[in-house]
Design goal:
The protein contains no helices and 2 strands.
Length: 65
């Protein structure tokens, strides 16, 4: 029975005149892995240090907590 699809029939939905893909592939995530630089952040001034762990902040001289 071709041509008998009713509007809203999920088996016959179309997108821009073409049949909709019933199982579209998930979108690729944008960007790379998230980086956690928390062990490089000075608690006093917020500066990010070149190395981790660090003993003293290169900007303000505060000791690492």
């Amino acid at each position: 029975m071709s041509g008998t699809a009713r509007p809203g029939d999920p088996d016959r939905e179309t997108v821009n005149g073409e049949a909709a893909d019933p199982d579209p592939a998930p979108a690729e995530p944008e960007g790379g892995e998230s980086a956690c630089w928390l062990d490089r952040v000075c608690a006093d001034c917020g500066a990010i240090q070149d190395t981790a762990p660090f003993a003293r902040c290169a900007r303000c001289g505060a000791p690492r907590e």
